[in-house]
Amino acid sequence: xxxxxxxxxxxxxxxxxxxDANFFYERALRSLDRxxxxxxxxxxxxxxxxxxSNPINYCNIAGVLSEIGKYGESNHILQKVIDEIDPNMxxxxxxxxxxxxxxxxxxxxxxELIQYLQEDEEGQYLEEAEEMIEFLELELERPTSITKVxxxxxxxxxxxxxxxxxxxxxxxxxxxxQTITKENPDFLAARNNLALAYYYVGxxxxxxxxIEEVLEEDPGNLxxxxxxxxxxxxxxxxxxxxxxLQALKNxxxxxxxxxxxxxxxxxxxxxxxxxxxxxxxxIKEGEAKKDPCVCHFAAVASCNIAxxxxxxxxxxxxxxxxxxxSIPQYFSILLKMIKTDPLKVSLSYSYYATVEEQMTIWEQxxxxxxxxxEPQFMKAFFYWALQYGDYAAKLKSIQVMxxxxxxxxxxxxxxxxxxxxxxxxLKQITMFVLRSMGINEAFQVMLSxxxxxxxxxxxxxxxxxxxxxxxxVWEEVAQLAITKTAKHYNVIQQHDMITLWINFLSKSSRxxxxxxxxxxxxxxxxxxxxxMYNRPVTYHDVALRYGTSISTVSxxxxxxxxxxxxxxxxxxxxxxxxxx
Length: 580
Fold this sequence. Notes:
single chain, mainly alpha, Serine Threonine Protein Phosphatase 5, Tetratricopeptide repeat, 5 domains, 3-stranded antiparallel sheet, 30 helices, 67% helix, extended
């Protein structure tokens, strides 16, 4: 009995250990600190035994398994959490995406990442998820198909909607913006862009109503005020515009986004000095000073008020920011022309990634206005293309120069003919264009490394412009024939082949033959050229080489011969066109 009392007395100094989930959780963390992953797994498993309904315990086990490279087992546990323990534990999708990425199952990683972004409200791993998106896009060599990021409450969708607006996909943008504004009524930026989208598709009443609703909630909303000014401008409400414009002129926005909106609005309203002031501020301050687009707009504003030196400074700065862009090269050439021959219209505040896209827009705008495109645009494109453009740009620039020909253009074309590195076909087209300009002197040309003289009066003019540009397939025929005959025909014979093709198109422009099955047309002009030079050739030979049928080639040969009377004139068509 005394012994028992003694034991009891001794037990009073012993602290009992409470074996619960928290105890084993703490032990697991200590093991992790010492990189004892096997012990950590055992302790986390004991924590699960005590609290089998706690999803955190399972995620901890999955985390350790991931650390030791057992990604598949980790995902099995994470999937169990989602399916059986707690479906609202959305971060499990992010963990699974990491595991799949480590296993190089990139499409599975993308699926789980999208699931996480669309379901998670907290955004705990949002920055990490964005980094993973960039990684997956590189691995998959395509953009990820993310449509919604729940944690951003419509911000991600709004970015997507703005991209749709910029691409002119207004119906899709409206549908997306309507969803955003319905789910997030306080998202005023989305409502502003919805107003613009309505206006772009002609829903002017709805657009103006959307702006007025924004201003009812926030009378000083700068985006809405700028949009309203643009509405007044396009609707011709001069008095209302002047009153609003006077108020806007006195505002110097604090935020960069507001400053950019104000600058572009003033540019559209042709308040170029104010626009330049705001663009200049953006370049001097903050992240915008690294954006070549802002430099371009500042240069445009400078150009529109004849501050040409300042415009050059901004386009030069653009070139430093993005040395691979062709935009500053083109506008630098245009600027030199504008100094001596000013434009009749203001340069528009539009920005496109390539010169070709910019030219396409200008051509479209000119057609919509029912006027010819400004000659300076076309000449600058011509000089830019010859110096910096690719094959397609050079071809187009040469073809369209006939209406804009002057002594400088003619000189540039003649110099182009002597460049050894340039394509022979482009030089042939250049000679045709010079001929159509009325240049009847002999040309010196470098063809296949040889300098030859070409009697210009023997080169037929190009087909009429309406034929050339309503059906550009004729170029594909010519290029295909040049490619197929490169190893079998000399430069002179290829020149005569293209001349025959141009003759046919010129003389048949009234009937405008359909140029379908380009292989057959190319085979036909090679066949007739071969006959001109008494080369042994059959319909079977050319049909086989171009991958078409004998009967189709025969029909095309007959069509060309009926127009050009090749067979009856074979004796007169010789290589005397070239005099070395």
